[in-house]
């Protein structure tokens, strides 16, 4: 007799079906984001999250079985926003213009909350793989790949590893800028563009 697959310990206990429930989940996720930004991993506890969100610890556990479950939901929230931003920037554009718009959107998204973005990158690598996160990552890769296949870009842009390299360049440079406390998004974007287009020999 086959055993049932183990339940995902990070899966939310229930999905918000009504507006009030959705507002509670939103408050929990935003409280988590603010604590990570202000106190880092050391100050990130479910009790502090519940307190800042203005809900009881029992209410928090109605939706999330543990802290990692909250973190995963926060990663999904931030990735959804990043995907919307980059997808919107790429709409109707091709080739070099498309790539430039997507780079600008990706940099702006990472700089929107740089401390949070950096910490969630760490947590995403630590937590078990998640189908929703992987799907959005594939969609992001697909957006970049579509831009890189245009005729006005060199053959290097169509190499299998190009998408991963470019995303690593963008994320690495923005994370480093965040650690240094940089706030000049224009200067950072210029540097990232030089790195990205230099990688493509443009």
Automatic annotation (TrEMBL):
InterPro entries named among the record's database cross-references: DNA-bd_HTH_TetR-type_CS (IPR023772), Homeodomain-like_sf (IPR009057), HTH-type_TetR-like_transc_reg (IPR050109), HTH_TetR (IPR001647), TetR_C_15 (IPR041669)
UniProt KW keywords: DNA-binding, Transcription, Transcription regulation
Keyword Lipid metabolism carried by entry: no
Domain HTH tetR-type: 22-82
Region (Disordered): 1-22
Keyword Transmembrane helix annotated: no
Bilayer-spanning residue ranges: none
DNA-binding region: 45-64
Protein name, UniProt field: TetR family transcriptional regulator
GO MF assignments: DNA-binding transcription factor activity; transcription cis-regulatory region binding
One Pfam family named in its UniProt record: TetR_C_15
Superkingdom of origin: Bacteria
